[in-house]
Protein 1
Amino acid sequence: MQNYKKEIIDSLGRKHDYLRISLTERCNLRCFYCMPENGVELREKSCFMTSEEVIEIAKEFVKLGIKKIRLTGGEPLIKKDIKNILLELGKLPVELAITTNAVLVDKYIDVLKKAGVNSVNVSLDSLKESKFNQISRRNFFQRIKSNIDLLIEHGFNVKINVVIIRDLNDSEIPDFICWTKNKAIDVRFIEFMPFDGNKWKNNKIVASAEIINLAKEVFGEKNVHKLKGELNDTAVNYKLKNAKGSFGVISSITNPFCDNCNRIRLLADGKIKNCLFSQTETDILSAYRENQDIQILIKDSIFNKRKQRGGVFEFNDDQVKFLKNRTMIAIGG
């Protein structure tokens, strides 16, 4: 075991102060790139963190220097006792954020505000209702669009996450960018990533460079301005001239941003993934239930983090077949 200070640092000197907590593997949508067609294996409730365990384990991370917590899923707003989780985590000295599909946002808008949540990421992969229904296998498009407007009206910082897949929704890239002209939203185009059961193919990727070149071609290079980023940003962001919002690209496949990664993922079943693409996990829930010191496990897990993408330096169709990872819905993104 390594003897660390009260902070979480890996062997390459990267400081980790951002925790993403997946609250559930369940969701009220069925997006094909996230959830396999046959769903996910149902397990006993005892396999997952209770609301009380989420809160107490989060406190242990905060003691180690975590400054930001983002709640994810599945869909976090369907988690039993989500109201109490939000309010209790809101008492911690951290920035609290959430990623949601926004189907239930209107029911929790007051709780989000009371908990001090300022940033809400909404997953929306099409601005066309029929296409959205095709991708999500559900019919909540109008409700989601309405709830995005509601979030904006209530002063939340709203980011729209768009997984771009060639020959599916890539033709909508200009439409999403146009949306930022008059809406105070930040659209982030995300490269299609391989997870168990999502039928990933290399030729389905729309690379970040292609997205930005298209933006410059459609809107004029002089009208597309690159924004100054922060050290740990995952997205490279741009803004159209005089636009209210912005847009950016997250290039996990073609141009990974691992050098400055500060993220830790705590899955709904209490295991740590020290990288989105890591093929190993550390079980801290079992240790917590046995009254063991989980801080040691947390620090050792992150200390052993690989330099890039969990040790995967290149993705191709043949290699991906042998990768051992979870489905996207079981990781929380």
Protein 2
Amino acid sequence: MDKGSTGMTIGIDLGDRKSHVCVLDADGKVVKRDIVQTTRTAFEGWFGKRARCRVVLEASGHSRWSSRLLLELGFEVLVANPRRLPEIYGQTRKNDPLDAERLARLGRLDPGLLHPIEHRSDAAQLGLVAIKVREALVRTRTRLVTSIRGTAKMFGIRVPACDAAQFHRKAAEALTDELLGMVQPLIDTLDELAVRIKACEKQLEEFAREVYPETEQLRQVAGVGPITSLAFVLTIENPKRFKRSRDVAPYLGLVPKQDQSGSIDKELGITKAGNKLLRGLLVQSAQYILGRFGPDSDLKRWALPKTEGSKAAKKRATIGLARRLAVLLHRLWVTGEEYQPLGYGTQPAA
């Protein structure tokens, strides 16, 4: 679809309550600026009476529903990737009306400059919400465990190392009666969190098995459980969107940043683009593979020698292994091959 018979382009800076709108004509002249309430009713009223054209907005908490509404109204919609818009975020003079205008100008000039994204389906998004709920519970448990351990240390008490799900029992045994009485609310909360986290994990495993059976293909790799495999499938959603399996790693932010000029090529950290939750789960899987319980595999043999020397070396090896793991999972998903830990063809470069 082109920009419509009017040749106009509309840029929207989405705000939590109000959104700024800028309309450019075919010659790039600003013909209208306005402020619209960020609600379905207000958007339907404002855009419903406009000539259909190209609309540009950036990915945000409101971009999901607003972009779909505009598509339903007949507009061509481009959702810009905010991480790839230095033209907007690198400005010294920045405000909502100007951001709306810049979005419109970029969309009018070359949509490729926006690095447009596509929102996931409702089913995939709901599945990711369930995973995020479990993740939030786990983070809360970690904070409570850290708090109790820190309190115990002040009294010369060290709670034995144990699985997080069992910490509330170990802490109750290790603490004095007086101290236990003070932290009992935290102990009780940890007890309840253990039950809720276990219930979430059971629900997610059933969901993966019944709705996304392809996750079983990914779980052939030791260290990749139901949650990681489900998060991978829901995040990628369509594996054919990538021409090569190795293209998954940049999409998930697992490749190094680049800053090269002439003979200078700086060594930088990973980009951390894409889904933070999945990236963290892949790193956890990589840590398991590298750990003492991780079985022998080509992945482990590749990464283990790279961990020697320092903590930084181990961190780089873990990230590198997570990157290769992402590539491998996509390959297994696309090909449907049976995975062999040792001698699985030519290991994908990452």
Protein 3
Amino acid sequence: MKKLRALSVVSALLVASCVGAEKSSNPLSPTVAGPIPGVNITPPSPVEPRDGVKIAADQQPITLLLANAATNGDRPLSYVFEVATDIGFTNKVFSRDGVTPGEGRTALRLPDPLASGRTYYWRAQAMDGANSSAVSALAFFTIFTPIVIDQPRLDFPINNTRIDDLKPEFRLTNAPRSGPVGAINYVLELSDTDTFANKVAIWTFRESPGRTSFDAPHPLVGDKQFFWHVHAFDTSTNASGPWSDTQAFRTAMTVVAPIPGPGGGRPCGPPYPNQPFGIVQCRRSQYGHMSSSQIVAFLKGVAKDLNAAGISGGPFGILTKPSGNQCEGFSCDFICNPRGQGWDVLVDAEGAQTPIWGNPKGYPSDRSCIIQ
């Protein structure tokens, strides 16, 4: 009897041993001994994000996408994903294994947003429980907080009000903004139409805390309607906001007080405001679109009035230009003095013929200034 029991125990052990051997030899068994000889798994390949792409912080959590690995083995693959803040993966911020492959590609959406303002590296590896691929190539991306700049609000001059002079002080409430915004500048466009098809001026100026003001650097034409709008931009990134609403205003009525002077039309001088630009404006207002001879008469009149008013920089005259012009041998838009200095008085003599008083500049020594 004891002999029979011993034989039964031996038989049971042999059966169990045979079952275990059959289980471990099956390549699909979870307990297969590995690695399995002859099995090769290629590394997966990161598809996106990669190549340093920048991702806005509000577009998170991100999804990692890779091209699947290939295997010549029978065992199904799964993937390990890792994300770190350093290329050596000593500071991992995310890791997940056992990710089931998709068809051709495998996507994994991170559970939480990553911190902004950092570069991240990620990689993946394929495994079948017995064999593993090499680690994939590294991919990297950056999370950033976008700069958002809103409209500024125009405070003055607005509502088509008439201002007291010809050099308005433009005032605005600063544009709201969010994100890592640096120094802000504003661009102001001034036009005589609400479509801004004809821009009279474009000025750029710095922001001041809370509210910003800007004085027009040159007087405007008197008794005229103007339209203006403004937008803000970050000087470090050039990120810009939308244009403000458009506002309109009218410049002050011009007052001309004639003074004695030589001919060439009605003289312009003291107490005319904003000299010498006021004199240029006054003379320009005496003409419509000027012909060549009228331009010369305009230039002579401006020079005479400047001299009569005792404007600093004189005596003033008109500049000879023997070739390449249509103004009877003179420059079409220039007032000069005999010391080699000159001033532009028309923005475009052949087109808009807008009055201006530019900064002094030189003129060629082979030309002469004819004092008026």
Protein 4
Amino acid sequence: MDNAIIGIMGKKGSGKSFFVKKAVPKIKRIIVLDPLYEYSGTICESWTDVIEYLKEFKENDFRAIYRPPDDEDVEGFLSIINTVNDYTLVAEEVDFFCSPNDIHPELLKLTKYGRHFKRSLLWLSRNPYEVNRFLTRQSDALITFRQTEPRDLDYFKRYNFNKNLEGLEEYEMAFSGSRQIITKIWGADEIK
């Protein structure tokens, strides 16, 4: 996949992880940062496991699920994946690794310079106020599922979504930004 940054937001249980899981089988080289143990596949429980896995599949397709045991391990993991080219990182609950006022330096590096190395990022969070503004600003597309918090709905008014966010049904999504990038990953049938 060419470089893309896509932010996916929605209340808990709104369908964001389910939506991303539909894309995972279509992406050839993928690493999932899975702090809440939501994904299945080849599980790496330390950044050294990630190194060994990537050495084995360096030139081929791979699907690794990384479940960080602690914050220190995440730093090693993010440093390692910033040495690999041509992959997609799915960062579940990205607000574990950044805040509105701070962003992990390696996540910032991936966001700023990933395009030079064919690194893509799909990041997920419950709402826009939990993540660093740099992530939303650099995203090629934003996807949101049902939002009901007035502050969140007000935030999204800055963007041109394809649907009225206040009218979204349960498990329904809306997007703003590059339709082409979204349909390349999920397919036109998913993006209505």
